[in-house]
Design goal:
It comes from Kribbella antibiotica. The protein is an alpha/beta fold and 516 residues long. It folds into 2 domains: 221 residues, no CATH class; 156 residues, no CATH class. It contains 17 helices and 11 strands. The strands form 2 sheets. Strands 6, 7, 8, 9, 10 and 11 form a 6-stranded antiparallel sheet that branches. Strands 3-2-1-4-5 form a 5-stranded parallel sheet. Helix 3 packs antiparallel against helix 4 and helix 12 runs parallel beside helix 15. The radius of gyration is 49 Å and the shape is elongated. The chain starts with a strand and ends with a helix.
Length: 516
């Protein structure tokens, strides 16, 4: 379908910002529309806009004089307004060209017809010329319509013009409250011309862009809402979805994904996205400008995704899995829905220019999310329990009085001397080394636990010094060890603290071979 626009369409909406323009921008591809603007129309639209701004500036100057802007000290504001109007008029030509480019509009030149043909239509007052013979530009536009019908024999054509006096027929509503008929009726002379060329069944006519869009929506997409704002929203969603599916998602696979984010099995070592299939649940939100006339749109969409996983070998693995004996892992493929989030950049009419996926994750209702939640709970509990045990065990380390080690040193030395024949020479030497004993005392002394009864510790030191096998219990009478009365502070005999050691030859000495 060719959609050919007249100058009145741009005069009604110079910036092409209405919902009807939005629908046309997004529907062009879905409905297989070719937007066509005759070069005469583009020139006339720019000139008409500039004339409108000249009129606005004149009206503004008169109003400012009436309101005494200069006398009120607002001359700078008046100058700024004049400059803004001048810049808008000067830049509109380039701006309109950019908008038409964003719409992928086809700008067609003036048809190659002899000038005498145009003159003949004017002097004969043939439509779209009026009764005075005026209508040169309208005639060129109509001849462009006929030429397009010949160039595109397989396409119908929709001509949109609110110049009802030159193009319209007798189909005008009886009052302003009644809507224009859709499609409208062309003037009888124009209908005759179409019939003569064999184009009668291929041409439709509408006064307003909104009328044309509504008619096409009812014909080509009756399932969509017919009010213009909702129609625009639906078509924009379709356009963005199609762009994401065709231009953005194909570039995301293959790629490595995060097992936790995608709610994969908790023992997954690594995972790779291989392909994205059927799409659903598209949603988007316009975030703001991205510079110039571009805008940024955040989107999310769910896609049925194929992934390959690497997992550790367990007792049972799927029959379809690929086993890797070297690192005790296996690979398997699964399919599940994943949510793809990203952004799109759009042009001045909302058509997407490019985009990127920024995150891949599971759906909120994915049941495997619970497995990761349970794993987190187990890990937290294990960590907390480890810390609790560590703190608890630290409380059981004995706190030994350094003076006790000092008191034990003579007895320990004597015991080691008595044991020396039974030990390897190097080990015996080490145990007998005073530096070793000092280090042992320092290490044992650094251990921390609840303090023992100081009275018991004193008794233990005394017992070691006097040769008693164990400290005196609280309140117990003094009892000499082995019937001997040793004064406090005297050295303890080896026999008092160690059992008697005898060798094989009853001499207490071992042959050298026994040490080996």
């Amino acid at each position: 379908m060719l959609v050919v626009l007249d100058t009145t369409v741009f005069g009604a909406d110079p910036m092409c910002a209405s919902d009807a323009w939005g629908v046309l921008a997004h529907a062009a591809e879905a409905w297989d529309l070719k937007i066509v603007v005759p070069s005469v129309v583009q020139l006339e639209a720019v000139a008409g806009y500039q004339r409108s701004l000249v009129g606005l500036q004149t009206a503004a100057e008169g109003w400012m004089k009436k309101q005494r802007f200069i006398g009120l000290g607002l001359s700078a504001a008046a100058d700024d307004l004049e400059m803004s109007i001048h810049e808008a008029a000067e830049n509109y030509g380039d701006q309109l060209t950019a908008i038409l480019a964003d719409l992928n509009a086809i700008i067609v030149p003036v048809p190659n017809v002899p000038h005498s043909v145009v003159v003949e239509r004017a002097v004969s007052r043939r439509k779209p010329c009026n009764s005075s013979g005026d209508g040169y530009r309208d005639t060129l536009n109509w001849l462009t319509v006929l030429e397009l019908l010949r160039q595109y024999p397989d396409d119908d054509l929709y001509w949109v013009s609110n110049n009802t006096g030159d193009f319209g027929g007798d189909s005008a509503p009886e009052s302003d409250q009644e809507p224009d008929p859709v499609p409208a009726v062309l003037h009888a002379e124009l209908l005759e011309e179409l019939a003569a060329a064999g184009f009668s069944e291929r041409v439709k006519y509408a006064h307003e862009l909104r009328d044309m869009v509504s008619d096409l929506a009812a014909t080509l997409a009756p399932e969509l809402p017919q009010d213009m704002r909702n129609l625009r929203s639906q078509l924009r969603a379709q356009t963005l979805t199609r762009f994401v599916a065709q231009e953005v998602l194909p570039g995301v696979a293959p790629s490595i994904v995060v097992p936790r984010e995608c709610a994969l099995p908790v023992d997954t070592i690594w995972a790779e996205l291989l392909a994205v299939g059927e799409l659903s649940d598209f949603d988007f939100e316009i975030r703001g400008a991205a510079g110039g006339d571009q805008a940024l749109i955040d989107f999310k969409i769910t896609g049925e995704s194929v992934l390959v996983l690497s997992r550790p070998v367990v007792e049972k693995i799927p029959a379809s899995a690929t086993l890797s004996p070297e690192d005790q892992t296996f690979e398997m493929q699964i399919s599940k829905p994943l949510v793809f989030r990203g952004y799109l950049a759009t042009n001045s009419v909302g058509k997407p220019l490019g985009g990127e996926i920024t995150k891949i994750a599971s759906r909120v209702d994915d049941p495997m999310r619970a497995d990761w939640h349970d794993k987190d709970v187990r890990d937290r509990n294990r960590s907390a329990l480890s810390g609790t045990f560590a703190r608890a065990l630290a409380g059981f380390k004995p706190v030994i009085d350094p003076k006790l080690i000092e008191s034990m040193t003579p007895s320990l030395t004597a015991a080691i001397q008595a044991m020396q024949p039974n030990l390897f020479p190097s080990l015996a030497s080490t145990l007998h080394d005073p530096q070793f004993l000092t280090a042992l005392q320092r290490v044992v002394g650094s251990l921390k636990l609840p303090m023992n009864d100081p009275k018991y510790m004193d008794d233990l030191r005394a017992a070691l010094i006097t040769g008693r096998s164990e400290p005196k219990a609280v309140g117990a009478p003094e009892t000499p060890a082995k019937g001997e009365n040793l004064s406090e502070g005297s050295e303890v005999a080896v026999a008092d603290v160690m059992p008697e050691q005898k060798g094989d030859d009853e001499t207490g000495e071992h042959p050298e071979s026994d040490l080996l």
